[in-house]
Structure formats: structure tokens, C-alpha cells
Write a structure and sequence with these properties.
By secondary structure, the protein is mainly α. The protein contains 8 helices and 2 strands, in the order H-E-H-H-E-H-H-H-H-H.
Length: about 240
Amino acid sequence: MNARNAVFRLIYEAVSWYFAKLMLLFITVPLTIVWIIAGLVFDLDRETLAAISGPAYFFIAGFGLFGFKSLFSISIGMGSTREQFLKAYYGVGIGGVIFSVLCLNICQYALVTIYRWNSVEAGILHVARLFLEEYHFFDYLWIDLMAGMASFGLSFFGYAIVYRVGFIRSVIMFMIVTVAGIFLYYGGTISALFDWMSNFKMSAMAIASCVGAVSLVALFATYPMLRHAPLHPMPRKG
């Protein structure tokens, strides 16, 4: 087995255990069963929201924050190049997000369907409720998928910055950008742009697609940041 196949297998097995076994089998599926039983046994009103998607977003963001560190040095020790590792990490990571979101939405569909069959008024806690009044499987799936990409892409982008420049420098950079943004906004330089964005009418699907696209750009922007990365992150004091 060559180094490229070996690193792909390493990441694939880690993602399979993390998403399929730990997240889905141990958390998401049991939560779904618990909410189904609660809906059938108790008189849940329409104010009740069954929450089963929260752990999925937590785990996806966790993989973006900690998956790289735990697998990077092992892959390099197996003879993989940094470019090979990053390509495999992106591909398998995105595949894991898609698989997890699909399974999550199947569980949500089963929950909603059983509730409807048994006249249970409770709904599901979901970000799509901010935009959509009724449950639609493919709309919820797409919004979940884009939210999952945001959790993975943005968390890994933030981690890559900290990995390369160090925690203290990252905090300083964040504060510089924040302070500059405050002065530019309240000084009127960029307030018109934000006003235009707030008044711009977009559908829920379009908003979700934009968020997902920006998150993918952020994810792939880490490639030039990490293609020559050292085996260990910059010390916290750096």
C-alpha cells in the first residue's frame, strides 16, 4: 500500500468511527428514539421542539478543530506529503459531513412522519424554522448541508490560522479586525454595504447556498496556509 492510499485509509477510518459510530449510532439515533417515545407517551404541544441536530453540528465543528492535529503527524510519519494529506482530509472530511447530514435528515424525517401519523403537535428544532413555515425534506436537507459545511469549513479555517501564527497572535489579529470593523461601520465607510445586504431579498435556499459557498472557500483557503506547515502548531506564546 503506497503512502497516498495509506493516508486516505487512515483518515477514512477516523471519519467513519467519529461520524458514523460515535455521532450517529451513539448519539443521534438514540436521541431520535427518545424523542419518538416521548412524543408517543407524553402530550407534547406545538411549543415543544425535538432537538436532535445539535450534536451533529458540534461534532462537525469538532472534526474541523481537532481532526487535523490528531491525524497530521501520523500521516507524515507514514510517508505522506502535506499536499496528499490535505487533499485526503478535505475529500474525506466533506464526504463525512455529507453522510452525517444525510443520516441526520433521515432521522428527522422519521421523527416528523411518526409525529404526523400520531397527531403529535411538537416540531423539530432546526435553523430552517427561521425561514420556512412548513417542513420539507429536501429544503431542510440542503440547509443542514450548508450549515454543516459552515461548521466544518469555518472551524478549520480558524484552527489553521491559530496553527500557523499561534494563539496570541491570532487573538491580536482578531481584535485588530474587530476594532477596525467597528470604526469603519460607525464611521459610515461600510455601513451602506451592510444596509444594502440587510435589505437585499434572498430566499432561504439562496442564503444557505451563499453560506455554504463562503465556507468552502474558507476551507480550501487553508491549503496554501498548511501545505508547508510544521508538524507541530505554533506555541501559544508565539
